[in-house]
Amino acid sequence: MNEVIIREITSEDKEMFLCAMQSSHALHHPWVKAPITPEEFDEYFSRYQKPNQKSYLLLSDNNLAGVFNISEIVRGYFQNAYLGFYAVAAYAGKGYMSTGLKLILTKVFKDIGLHRLEANIQPENTRSIWLVKKNGFRYEGFSPRYLRVNGVWQGHEHWAMTYEDFIKDNNEALEKDHINIVAYNTEWPLLAKAEMVKLRASFPANSVIDIQHVGSTAIPGMASKPIIDIQIAVRSLEEMKIIAVPILQKLAYEYWEDNPDHERMFFVKGMPPYGNGRTHHVHIVETSSRHWKGKIFFRDYLLSHPEAAEKYQQLKIKLAQEHKYDREQYTDAKSEFINQILKLAQN
């Protein structure tokens, strides 16, 4: 792929724009109606000269590869805008739009200074949904008869990104999300109990089989990361995937959608840049899963074997110093000790 740039549309782009849109009509229909006549271009161009509208062309070697529209820019408390886009047929499916979207996100969040960007897409438009999802947008729901497209009111899915989503993988955010072992805090059990009451009350009746405080903060006297780990047992993880995400989002949790472990749903509260530091983890698992039994067996064994708890504490302190900014390495390095304890606990 050749190098691409984005720039705002100008009146001199009229001929190039119309030629590209006319050749791409079949690609765009029925998802979007791009200007294809001189009159439609003039109206379009005039609209995007307003202060709350922006139209950016995606160019490759001065050829039009795609269009991104930022519309209805709102300042004040909202700091929001809506994203529309369409590819030129000759460049579709070749990575140009994904590269262009990354440039647009930088423009929106860094240069324009917005906090939120929303894309509304018809459910059948799977290529556009894949594009925004791949680039970090999150699904926020569906509205029937939301936008009129080609004279028909169509339902749309809502996909959005906030500034926090945009910067979550940058070095500053990753450094803030470091591993820190602190002395045991007698408030941890109280915080866990209060959170478990809140969680149980938030889920539908009978959907939660059991809920328990697990992890190092559940071991009195043990130094730990100051993060309350709570494990929730359910009958069906597939059912929970439908209801748990919006419930926990309302309680300020972020869902790890890309978790490679398909036997567990994992949620984090307070993780930078969404917060100032992790305070809670929620693990949702089925009662038959290895996670449910394993975390409880491990906790209970350490509760009844102080010498093992002390060894685990010293191991964590050592590993936290070695892997302060790498949670994956920190977790992996503990696995041998944890597996040894689980074998002892189950004998």
TrEMBL record:
It comes from the Bacteria. Pfam families: Acetyltransf_3, GrpB. Residues 4-164 form the N-acetyltransferase domain. This is Ribosomal-protein-S5p-alanine acetyltransferase. One of its GO terms (molecular function) is acyltransferase activity, transferring groups other than amino-acyl groups. InterPro entries: Acyl_CoA_acyltransferase (IPR016181), GNAT_dom (IPR000182), GrpB/CoaE (IPR007344), NT_sf (IPR043519). Keywords: Transferase.
